Sequence to fold (214 residues):
Amino acid sequence: RLADTVGAFNPVQTFDLVSQVRNRVRSLALDYHAHNDLGMATANSLTALYAGANSVNVTVNGIGERAGNAALEEVVMAVVRSGVFGCRVDTRTLSELSQAVARASGRMPGPAKPVVGSEVFHHESGIHVRALQQEPDSYELFHPEEVGAPARRYVIGKHSGYASLRAFFSREGHGGKRDVPPWMLSMVKRESVRLKRSLTSSEVELLYKSSEGK
Fold:
């Protein structure tokens, strides 16, 4: 085992170390242990595999000393998306596994946590939403169902466009309404800026009802 116990390495250093050991001892089974003190545990773990390591250490949600270890869910998806290495993990179980460990440990992953965060599949930008409605691959490296996550959600906020509002009205039972009045989008943006956050469904509904007929 080659252990970067204080998370000091970057991918270049990891590749140099692992490849040097691999070249000198070709028959040895190599394992790499990365910590995340500089936010590079996943990158270093994938790099170690490229450099010749046979295995890497991971923990669910990256739980570990200090900033944690390489996160299983991140490394698994990086391995899968690399197209280079085989992986027998059923990625559709990753979200459920993450939630189970979070409940047991009392340590919830942040909403933007890669792969399993609650907001990973939230989209607000008008350009993104419009493109996603045409082709989901345009702004998602992988899709919610691939990691067992809830369906993607279009968030209404200051970056929203007409595509987001049309999707909202259709979802909330406005008869599949497609024509969003210009005043609605401008009101949504102003309210989101005022509140310094995206809007809830009830807040969007209230804005619509309070200004309907303008």
